[in-house]
Design a protein that fits this description.
- Helix 7 packs parallel to helix 9 (158-166), helix 10 (171-177) packs antiparallel against helix 11 and helix 12 runs antiparallel to helix 13 (214-233).
- It is built from 13 helices and no strands.
- The longest helix has 26 residues, at 3-28.
- The termini are far apart.
- The protein is an all-alpha fold.
- The protein has a domain at 178-235.
Length: 235
């Protein structure tokens, strides 16, 4: 066997070993075990916010893998754990999150404003699969319940969630919500994101632009421009 042939044999053997090792890692690598699920459940329910924050950090890279566990926690009975698990479900665009809908809707119907806000964000991030939550989202928007800290006022998160879940079909809900003072800017912002699909709201936005002042007027002006540009561009 000449030198080239020997070299090729060595390369092929090395590649075979590497592929076999990768197979082993895929097959026997870390998984979302039952014990890990129990640990997460315990950490999410801990009264210490620092412990809960550390648990959130630990699962960031593995949220897709842990969706069934997180959904189980959201659908469980521990209010603190439910909120933490719902927060973890807000971002990953992965299948299976709709399993948490019963728990998220229960949070939405509860009295805790911070939990409501987290539930609304999670439902919005789930998108069209969260359509069964629309009646409850509409109720929260109509209630206009405002906390001392605007950051946790649930109603201000509803317009974006409606847009994420319903797309263009959210326009009638958003147009109705333009009359609510506490969420008007968020509604206008959501209409801007819909671009040409928000054309039915042009007259209402024009009235706001003419009659309002300050930030609300600025938002209306920017949204009118964006919708009209989208219509002109045919997008």
């Amino acid at each position: 066997m000449n030198e080239i042939a020997r070299y090729l044999v060595v390369v092929i053997l090395a590649m075979t070993v590497i592929l076999a090792a990768a197979n082993v890692c895929r097959r026997y690598g870390p998984t979302a075990s039952e014990s890990e699920a129990e640990t997460l459940l315990a950490q999410f329910a801990d009264p210490d916010p620092q412990v809960r924050a550390n648990a959130q950090f630990k699962i960031m890279a593995r949220r897709a893998q842990l969706v069934p566990v997180l959904a189980k926690i959201v659908n469980g009975d521990n209010a603190i754990a439910r909120k933490e698990a719902a927060m973890a479900l807000c971002t990953p665009k992965v299948p299976g999150r709709s399993a948490a809908l019963p728990g998220l809707i229960r949070m939405l119907r509860g009295d805790d404003l911070a939990s409501q806000r987290v539930a609304i964000e999670a439902l919005g991030s789930i998108g069209p699969d969260a359509a069964e939550a629309i009646p409850d989202l509409h109720k929260v928007l109509r209630a206009q319940q405002v906390s001392q800290t605007r950051l946790v006022s649930p109603c201000s998160y509803v317009p974006a969630a409606l847009r994420q879940i319903l797309g263009r079909d959210s326009v009638p809900f958003l147009m109705e919500a333009l009359c609510h003072p506490h969420t008007r800017m968020e509604v206008i912002d959501s209409l801007a994101e819909l671009e040409a699909d928000a054309a039915p709201a042009l007259d209402a936005l024009e009235r706001i632009h003419m009659n309002e002042s300050g930030k609300t007027r600025e938002y209306a002006e920017r949204t009118l421009k964006r919708i009209r540009e989208a219509l002109a561009a045919g997008r």
